[in-house]
Amino acid sequence: MNIDFSKMNGLIPAIVQDAVSGKVLMQGYMNEEALEKTKESGMVTFFSRSKNRLWTKGETSGNFLELVSIAGDCDGDSILVKANPRGPVCHTGSDTCWDEENSSKTGFIDQLRAIIKDRKNNPSDKSYTASLFAKGINKVAQKVGEEAVEIVIEAKDDNKELFLGEAADLLFHYLVLLEAKGYELDEVMQVLIERHSKKS
């Protein structure tokens, strides 16, 4: 990452995005020292222009931003920080500085898909997912069928914990099946998008 701090008198914009939801949380400024402290501490740190000093988000409120990754933009004059927020991000108590709700966890599906793909391409004897791929497409498809039956059974009862557990099992094995077939979830989403557009 090659960042040019000289372009704006030593400060560059730092956009913070929730690593799970993908929601943009806030924007601050970093100098070289703030960037290094962020990397070293694992907590997102800015240079506060009003306080004229380094400021670790959450140092007063306890609502820290735990660092996941940092990337510079194509011109080297801004930073994208992906983080896990520990509490509301805005000083107003809102989830984001744009007063948006940040509760969705569906972004984790993309992380899970990447893990599943890695288990397929870099199998390990200790990985359950890799063992499914090793058994072949019939076994993977069978597991999806088994999990589908189990969620139907749980749907007839009124146990939220068991139902959600079976729903998670079904979703996971469905993602494994897509990977085993060589298809992307985005392709499934495109089918849904096209169906929706025809009905609109």
Structural description of this entry:
This protein is α+β, with helices and mostly antiparallel strands. Helix content is about 45%, strand content about 20%. The chain contains six helices and six strands; from the N terminus they run E-E-H-E-E-E-E-H-H-H-H-H. The strands form two sheets. The chain has a four-stranded mixed beta sheet, covered by helices on one side. A two-stranded antiparallel ribbon has the order 3-4.
Summarize the structure.
With 200 residues, this protein is an alpha+beta fold.
What are the defining features of this structure?
200 residues, alpha+beta, two-stranded antiparallel sheet, 6 helices, 6 strands, 18% strand, elongated
Strand content: 15-25%
Q: Structural class of the helix and strand makeup?
A: alpha+beta
Morphology call:
elongated
Main-sheet strand order equals 2-1-6-5
- Radius of gyration equals 22 Å
- The oligomeric state of the chains shown is single chain
Mean pLDDT: 94
Q: Give start-end ranges of low-pLDDT stretches.
A: none
What's the tally of helices? 6
Find the count of extended strands (DSSP E, 2+ residues).
6
Distance between the termini: 45 Å
Biggest sheet features: 4 strands, mixed
Order of helices and strands: EEHEEEEHHHHH
Percent in helix = 40-55%
Keywords: Amino-acid biosynthesis, ATP-binding, Cytoplasm, Histidine biosynthesis, Hydrolase, Multifunctional enzyme, Nucleotide-binding
Protein name: Histidine biosynthesis bifunctional protein HisIE
EC number: 3.5.4.19, 3.6.1.31
Domain Phosphoribosyl-AMP cyclohydrolase: 26-98
